[in-house]
Amino acid sequence: MHLNIEENNKLINCFYSESIKGLNKASYQLATVNKKICATLFCNEQKISCNELLELKQLLLKSNIKLTNIYSSSRESVVTAKSLKINGIFSNKNFDNLNIGVEDQLDNKDLTHFGMVRSGDQISSNGNLFIMGDVNPGAQISAKKNIYVWGKLCGVAFAGKNGNDYSTISSLYLNALQLRINETVAIGPKEKPKNNYPEIALLEKGKIVIKPLIINS
User: Fold this and answer.
1) I need a surface site. Which of 66, 69, 123, 129 has the fewest CB within 10 A?
2) What is the C-alpha to C-alpha distance for residues 134 and 157, in angstroms, rounded to an integer?
3) Are residues 74 and 137 in the same domain?
4) Are residues 92 and 128 in the same domain?
5) Residue 104: inside a domain, yes or no?
6) Which are the contacts of 144, defined by CB distance < 8 A and separation ≥ 6?
């Protein structure tokens, strides 16, 4: 399932989860906005109960976000949406295979993605990019600022798209196929990480180096 948050038809955030319960948990982390924005839920044949959908709707409203549309191949989910005065649209499209491109999101907005990034998926952010899950080989992620992967990074990562040499790429398990910061490109490490601590890739003297990620409290 994908939950897209939009303002004036521009994508400003996207959440992914295998279930509606996961999206409900992610909604707790949304900040309240001053003006109303909209959300669209894309799901496949998953049946969503009235209580689950109502919980998501109410959680989004707490952040001043209105759930306006639901696309699903489950007629039960479409009927449930309409019973809660949400525009339910029946569609047989496999939304899990959607490429998530967000080049048109609002300037300098960070993007958070919850869930796995599969092979063939592309996720881009005009600010920082936060991935709460694994990035599989064949997936591509990029950001104008920094990239943070709270999971395994095994795909291609490109930070500093705005020309910033000080951008970084961090991951709990950094085993990327390719790393790029601004104009500098490096092949990922040949050996798998042997340590149990997060790592960060950054530019030093024109080369990309990988170091332990130390968070100062």
Assistant:
1) 66
2) 12
3) no
4) no
5) no
6) 108, 125, 126, 127, 160, 161, 162, 164, 167
